[in-house]
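Human:
Take a look at this sequence-structure pair and walk me through the tokens.
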Amino acid sequence: MRKILIMAVLLSMFIFTTGCSSDKAPDIVIENISIAPSSMKGEGVYSGYFTIRNNGGEDTFTGFMIPEFPEATFELHNVKDGSMYQIEHVNIPNGEIEFKKGGYHIMMFNMPSFRQLPDVFTIVFEFDKSGSITVPNVLKPEGVIVPTESSMKK
């Protein structure tokens, strides 16, 4: 009887630990991208907002770039108690994280003025595990960028 009890405990421990494994690969989707001139003073400063949906294991969002503007500076930011500050990365668990005003968002500096922006450009998002996820975008006249598809997936 004792052997059966020990086997049952060991089996339940095995099932529990394998069922809770974080070895599952991330499955990242980036949606609802909008870029607008920032409320910060200065020409060529933009803020970006979007949703990252992860249908898999954890990942880390480490940065982004716009290949058409190699001279620009790109930063991740957060807001706490009304103050914006730069951050190095954002942990992306299973689920959704919204990058929005008053919270996580991206900043772009030394970009062309709004009138000089091309109609189409690309944003490349960088993740630790997922690598680069490229999202081609269309610039709308009112300053909002929307994906050419409803969502882009690696």
Q: What stands out?
A: The chain has a mean pLDDT of 82.
